[in-house]
């Protein structure tokens, strides 16, 4: 009996000792964890400081990029004032391509009033009618032609050509040199073959995509040109990316059959040329994106008369006015020549927005409240004179 009791006592003692050991181990674990906490906090602080310093250096580097405006105050190109309708021209030089064969164009019309935009992609293999020589030239050869005709002003030549083809006064331009394309957008010479690829250009140049490669941003000072600052361009691109993400845009590929017509060059070579009539029609179908709510509410009607010695000038100006959002109901030659260009407005207050659009296109004209001496039915009458 005594043996049995002794055995039970010993077993109870073992259980108590076991509990004590387990308890002690738990205490030592807690002490161990408590000892590691200051080290983890210290390492977290160091990592945060390093990350913050990197962010500061990267942001400062990106912010201080100095952009050169290679067009400048050029007599050929005169940029419009940017209002609620931004008209931006993006000139993209393909990577790994020669200077004679490297361009495609994006024309973006962004209505900040309703947060919608039109995007026109003009590929390099489409031909346009050269404004200066009246000969056909491919878009991809514009820089090369500009260098031949105008040398230092070759990019002004490119912008002027696109303005004339599209009958749009652009307020800003961005030129992506081939090194920018290669290092920040895509190093593929086939990049931009689809709508999805083309529209990634706005996100690829976001601050978060640029900062990991901030050590390369010096390339922007040599291969990126604009009449905007770098941060202004970045801010606009962020807005455009938001429009793309929300799917509030219309995209047109001007290489599609509906936007081209076949022309025959010397040597009986057939090429695809931009059909400007089809282009204009797409703008008019989407006219509410290319004008503000205030202009839309005026329902302004415009007439244009050519009293100058420039053949077809009324058609040229009427097209620009229509592509800027005002409806043109009539354009033709005036019955007699006019010395001075005048804009007649039936009601200055009622048609203030329409007048602003017209005056931006027909610059240095005398504005008169009233009507001309001949019969008209429009709200704004443009009479082009010999002073143009």
Q: Which terms summarize this structure?
A:
388 residues; alpha/beta; 5-stranded mixed sheet; 13 helices; disordered N terminus
Description of the molecule:
With 388 residues, this protein is of the alpha/beta class. The protein folds into two domains: 85-277, LCP protein (Aminopeptidase, 3-Layer(aba) Sandwich); 296-384, Alpha-Beta Plaits (2-Layer Sandwich), CATH 3.30.70.2390. Helix content is 42%, strand content 21%. The protein has 13 helices and 15 strands. The chain has helices at residues 2-63, 142-150, 154-166, 178-185, 195-199, 201-204, 207-210, 218-223, 230-245, 276-285, 293-298, 313-323, 352-361; strands at residues 85-93, 103-111, 116-122, 127-129, 136-138, 172-176, 224-226, 249-253, 260-265, 269-274, 301-306, 327-333, 342-345, 366-369, 380-384. The strands form four sheets. It has a six-stranded mixed sheet. A five-stranded mixed sheet has the order 12-11-15-13-14, covered by helices on one side. Strands 4-5 form a two-stranded antiparallel ribbon. Helix 2 crosses helix 3. The N and C termini lie far apart (130 Å).
């Amino acid at each position: 009996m005594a043996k049995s009791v002794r055995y039970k006592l010993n077993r109870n003692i073992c259980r108590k000792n076991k509990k004590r050991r387990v308890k002690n181990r738990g205490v030592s674990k807690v002490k161990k964890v408590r000892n590691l906490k200051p080290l983890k906090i210290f390492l977290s602080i160091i990592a945060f400081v390093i990350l913050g310093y990197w962010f500061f250096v990267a942001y400062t580097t990106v912010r201080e990029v100095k952009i050169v405006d290679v067009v400048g105050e050029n007599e050929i190109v005169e940029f419009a004032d940017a209002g609620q309708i931004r008209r931006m021209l993006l000139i993209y030089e393909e990577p790994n391509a020669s200077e004679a064969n490297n361009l495609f164009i994006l024309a973006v019309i962004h209505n900040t009033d309703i947060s919608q935009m039109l995007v026109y992609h003009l590929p390099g293999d489409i031909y346009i009618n050269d404004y200066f020589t009246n000969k056909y030239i491919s878009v991809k050869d514009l820089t090369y032609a500009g260098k031949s005709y105008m040398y230092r002003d070759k990019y002004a030549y490119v912008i002027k050509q696109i303005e004339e083809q599209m009958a749009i006064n652009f307020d800003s331009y961005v030129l992506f040199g081939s090194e920018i394309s290669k290092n920040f957008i895509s190093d593929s010479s086939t990049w931009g073959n689809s709508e999805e690829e083309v529209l990634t250009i706005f996100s690829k140049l976001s601050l978060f995509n640029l900062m990991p490669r901030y050590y390369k941003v010096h390339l922007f000072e040599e291969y990126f040109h604009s009449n905007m600052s770098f941060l202004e361009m970045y801010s606009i691109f962020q807005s455009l990316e938001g429009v793309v993400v929300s799917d509030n845009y219309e995209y047109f590929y001007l290489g599609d059959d509906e936007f081209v017509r076949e022309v025959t060059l010397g040597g009986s070579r057939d090429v695809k040329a931009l059909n400007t009539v089809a282009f204009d029609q797409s703008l008019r179908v989407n006219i509410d994106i290319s004008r503000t709510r205030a202009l839309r509410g005026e329902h302004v009607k415009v007439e244009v008369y050519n009293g100058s010695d420039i053949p077809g000038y009324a058609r040229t100006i009427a097209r620009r006015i229509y592509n800027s959002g005002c409806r043109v109901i009539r354009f033709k030659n005036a019955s007699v020549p006019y010395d001075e260009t005048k804009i007649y407005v039936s009601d200055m207050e009622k048609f203030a927005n329409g007048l602003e659009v017209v005056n931006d296109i027909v610059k240095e004209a005398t504005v008169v409240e009233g009507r001309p001496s001949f019969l008209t039915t429009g709200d704004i009458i443009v009479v082009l004179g010999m002073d143009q």
